[in-house]
Design a protein that fits this description.
elongated, five-stranded antiparallel sheet, 658 residues, alpha+beta, 16 helices, 54% helix, single chain
């Protein structure tokens, strides 16, 4: 308990530090990380715009140089005075302007070329144009075999790149410039260009311009690359220490985003052999088709290292704060421990039964002192209530004993009442049967009396002619005897003792059918019986008769004058115990579903004003007392079915076997 109190106080004191501060730290670091990454993305975006401007500046310079040459008097003089000097003049001008190719188009050549290249078409109509275009290997070879050889780059298998259908990139990406030349009213086109494949001067100048000599002030390296499609054709990214990564390819994700969808990529990307904060810009040719990418980026690793260092610095500071503040809080909480420990010891003594235990009166006026005094007051009240409870317990025991005796008397009266109810229900059944029996007796007696008179008046001792009448007299007398015998058997007073015996259920059912024949014969009720071989059961036959007669009469009344009563007896095993199943089914309307669960409740009846409502309740009690079960269900077709199951008696149940 002591450790628990101290731990809880420490947690309570340090909760703001160990929960809220880490939560705030996580939120702050996440926000700082997002802002830091945003700054890096903005930085690479700015670098990409500088690179884009430099590429545009290269195109503009090429266009201005070529336009200056096209408008110069020198070229007009050469073309007018001696056209044969034109090739030599163009070669000198190419070297002087820093172009990789320079040629003049006129006549049919101009007509063919302007259909092929939009820049030439624009120049042919008088406008100077400079665009990025892709020249095939054959186009480059036609200009210069050396130019075609310089443009040729072997592809290098690159991690995360899309599959390639070629192993060599022999096309050339050029700054394609065309300017109109007007001589004697005729327009010619001067075409020049700069090959960007392997153009290390271009890419290194671009890198120096963007990244200040290729390095940040803190030594973090920046890189720049020009892509033809997804292949690096000019780059300062290193494959090895002194080998540039020409022929390596960009990742499939970047290619799909930039070349496929035309988006500018500003995110982290894997470049050759490391992760870079990267910017990729799509490059379109004079046809408006995306043919390449311009890339700038810088290593991500130094920034990740810096972020991790910042994370660990914050975590270390947090741990240091916890280490310094935890002892302080424990020292401040120490004044709380002593009175709490005392209260704990006091409560432990009370738990052991010492109700005289009390806290020492505290001179402290704070909340803990008030709690200690209040606890003493409560213990005084508990001690007083314990004394009262002990006194009340003695009185309660006396009252319980008295109430127990009253309940025993009430229970005996209840059992006596139940026996009387059983007899009452049985007498009610006898009353119904007696009315029919009286009618059945009158008819045989009348027949007997009539035939006896005839015999005496007409035949005397000669009995042979009246054998039929004598036989009829015998049958009727036998019928009277059977009815009266079954009635006496049913009505014998067995309710006040145990008269259980081995009973053939089928035989009892047959006797019951004789007793209720007057009820069934008044209606169009067909009785179907099926009595299979079944073991005997142990029950008072009178009680079983009472149950069966009650169910048969109820079924007959439910069919309202017409129907079929099906009765079957068969052996059936339930819960691994052999027994006899008696099923009594009618074709009446069945039992409403809302009433079927209450059918065995005492005083529950569906015939208001015509019965006591105790017949089925008593029947259930009698069957359960014999160890059996009685259930009811509505048949799927029509009517209700009662099932009475009684167990086969064992040796332990049979007093004759003990």
């Amino acid at each position: 308990m002591l450790k628990s109190v101290r731990l809880r106080l420490l947690i309570l004191a340090l909760l703001p530090l160990i929960v809220l501060m880490p939560l705030l730290m996580v939120v702050a670091m996440a926000r700082w990380n997002a802002d830091y990454d945003k700054i890096l993305i903005e930085k690479v975006e700015s670098d990409l715009r500088i690179a884009e401007q430099y590429l545009g500046h290269l195109q503009s310079n090429s266009a201005r140089a070529l336009q200056g040459l096209a408008q110069s008097a020198e070229i007009a003089d050469v073309l007018t005075r001696d056209p044969g000097l034109t090739p030599a003049f163009l070669e000198q001008s190419q070297d002087r302007l820093g172009l990789d190719f320079l040629y003049l188009l006129q006549g049919n050549e101009l007509t063919d070329a302007k259909e092929k290249w939009p820049v030439i078409f624009q120049a042919a109509v008088g406008r100077m144009v400079s665009e990025i275009d892709i020249l095939s290997a054959s186009d480059l070879a036609a200009l210069s075999p050396a130019l075609a050889a310089e443009a040729r780059i072997e592809l290098i298998e690159t991690e995360a790149a899309a599959p390639a259908d070629h192993t060599v990139e022999d096309r050339g990406m050029v700054v394609h410039t065309a300017a109109p030349v007007r001589v004697n009213g005729e327009i010619r086109v001067l075409v020049g260009g700069i090959l960007l494949n392997r153009n290390l001067d271009f890419i290194d100048t671009l890198n120096e311009l963007v990244y200040l000599q290729g390095q940040y002030s803190d030594g973090r390296q920046g890189t720049a690359t020009l892509f033809l499609s997804d292949t690096r054709v000019s780059t300062n990214v290193r494959l090895f220490e002194d080998v540039r990564a020409l022929g390596t390819r960009v990742s499939a994700a970047v290619r799909d985003a930039v070349l496929g969808k035309g988006r500018t990529w500003l995110d982290s990307a894997f470049v050759v052999n490391d992760w870079y904060i990267s910017g990729y810009l799509p490059i379109s040719d004079s046809f408006g088709k995306r043919v390449g990418m311009l890339y700038v980026g810088f290593l991500e690793a130094p920034y990740e290292t810096a972020k991790r260092a910042a994370y660990w610095t914050v975590v270390g500071a947090f741990v240091l704060v916890i280490a310094l503040t935890a002892p302080l809080f424990l020292w401040l909480a120490k004044g709380i421990f002593a009175p709490l420990e005392q209260m704990t010891r006091t409560m432990a003594r009370v738990e052991r039964g010492d109700l005289t235990a009390r806290n020492q009166t505290s001179a402290r006026g704070d909340e803990i002192g008030q709690v200690a005094n209040h606890l003493n007051t409560l213990l005084d009240q508990v001690q007083e209530r314990d004394r009262r409870l002990r006194n009340w317990a003695g009185e309660l025991n006396l009252r319980v004993e008295e109430r127990t005796r009253e309940l025993q008397v009430a229970n005996a009266k209840l059992e006596e009442t139940f026996r009387q109810l059983v007899m009452s229900e049985k007498l009610a059944s006898i009353g119904e049967i007696t009315a029919g029996v009286a009618h059945e007796i009158n008819n045989p007696v009348a027949v007997i009396q009539g035939n006896v008179d005839v015999m005496r008046m007409t035949l005397g001792d000669a009995a042979e002619p009246v054998r039929t009448e004598l036989d009829l007299i015998d049958n009727q007398v036998m019928r009277i005897g059977a009815i009266v015998g079954k009635l006496l058997q049913f009505a014998r007073p067995s309710e006040f003792g145990t008269f259980a015996e081995h009973v053939d259920v089928a035989a009892v059912v047959r006797d019951c059918l004789v007793l209720v024949d007057h009820v069934i014969s008044k209606q169009e009720v067909r009785v179907l019986t099926q009595f299979d071989a079944a073991p005997h059961v142990r029950i008072d036959p009178g009680e079983l008769q009472q149950v069966v007669i009650n169910i048969i009469i109820n079924a007959s009344q439910a069919m309202e004058g017409k129907g079929t009563l099906a009765i079957s007896v068969a052996g059936e095993v339930r819960d691994a115990q052999t027994g006899v199943a008696l099923r009594i089914a009618d074709t009446g309307p069945g039992i409403p579903m809302e009433r079927i669960d209450h059918i065995f409740d005492p005083f529950f009846t569906t015939k208001q004003g015509e019965g006591t409502g105790l017949g089925l309740s008593i029947s259930q009690t009698l069957i359960q007392r014999a160890g059996g079960r009685i259930t009811v269900r509505n048949r799927r077709a029509r009517g209700a079915e009662f099932l009475i199951w009684l167990p086969e008696p064992t040796d332990a149940d049979d007093p004759d076997q003990r």
